[in-house]
Amino acid sequence: MLKVTLIGTGNISKFLFKVLSDHPEVAIVQVLGRSDKALEHFRDRTAVSIDLREIKKADVYILAISDEAIGEVAHSLEIGSGLLVHTAGSIPMEVLPARVRRGVLYPLQTLSGILPEKMMDIPICIEASEEEDYLILEKLAHFISPRVEHINSDQRKHLHLAAVFANNFSNHLFFLSSEICEDHGVDFDLIRPLIRESYTKVLSQSPYDAQTGPARRGDNKTMDAHLEMLRSPRLKEIYELLSKSIQNTYGKEL
């Protein structure tokens, strides 16, 4: 039985608590958080505390907290011989104190509202300072997802950067698209099938090959018309920047 303590009460902690506490080979022995209110979600199923000095003995301590807090909280913990890991994509393992066994357990997925059954193909990226700790993290990660990858801190921060482009920036473009629809009395639901098809295509072919649109085919007439339609300088700037990037990517083919 692998004993796990969770430190943090946000989306990642709630997700890990749900998945791991349902596994017969894992015992969540404690959840620590900053407030009693935040700990209510966990109180009925395990021990909880707002005092880091009351931390219970475990095999693995998972820091599922904000990036900014990881270093400070990690250095304040007294965990004996346990393995201390964080879950952040952009933070190096070395932010954790060298005096403890340390590692990283990074789920490469946006976890806001995701259901555990949707985790089956999500990569869990792990890193550890010792080979024996890699084995522990591999075991723990496989309780979450069958896809486990050894990724070092430099690779992980670039993976996180790529994820921001693929997920966060694309979602912001969806928001801008919805604003254009709303401003002109068009139902954004009409765009949703296009979004679905775009994402389906990129799962089966390279993003390079999947690109379409006026910038891809060098249709300057359509692009000029779009720029005339855009009243917002901010949207014009974004449109021009992305169109230029696409044209630069496919310049030799246009």
Description of the structure:
- It holds the Pfam family DUF2520.
- This is DUF2520 domain-containing protein.
- Residues 122-246 form the DUF2520 domain.
- The chain has 254 residues and is of the alpha/beta class.
- The chain has two domains: 2-151, Rossmann fold; 156-253, ProC-like, C-terminal domain (N-(1-d-carboxylethyl)-l-norvaline Dehydrogenase, domain 2, Orthogonal Bundle).
- It is 47% helix and 15% strand.
- It has helices at residues 11-21, 36-43, 67-76, 131-142, 153-183, 192-204, 207-210, 214-217, 220-229, 233-249; strands spanning 2-7, 26-32, 47-49, 60-63, 83-86, 101-107, 124-128, 148-150.
- The chain has an eight-stranded mixed sheet with strand order 3-2-1-4-5-6-7-8, sandwiched between helices.
- Helix 3 links the parallel strand 4 and strand 5 (83-86).
- The longest helix is centred in the middle third of the chain and has 31 residues, at 153-183.
- The protein is elongated.
- SS-derived structural category: alpha/beta
The end-to-end span amounts to 60 Å
Helicity level: 40-55%
* Beta-strand content bin: 15-25%
> What CATH architecture of the largest domain do you see?
3-Layer(aba) Sandwich
Q: How is the CATH topology of the largest domain named?
A: Rossmann fold
| Rg over C-alpha atoms, rounded to the nearest angstrom | 22 Å
Gross morphology is elongated
CATH class group of the largest domain:
Alpha Beta
Strand order of the biggest β-sheet: 3-2-1-4-5-6-7-8
Q: CATH homologous superfamily of the largest domain?
A: NAD(P)-binding Rossmann-like Domain
Total of domains: 2
Biggest sheet: strands, sense, closure? Answer: 8 strands, mixed
Mean pLDDT: 94
**In total, how many beta strands?**
8
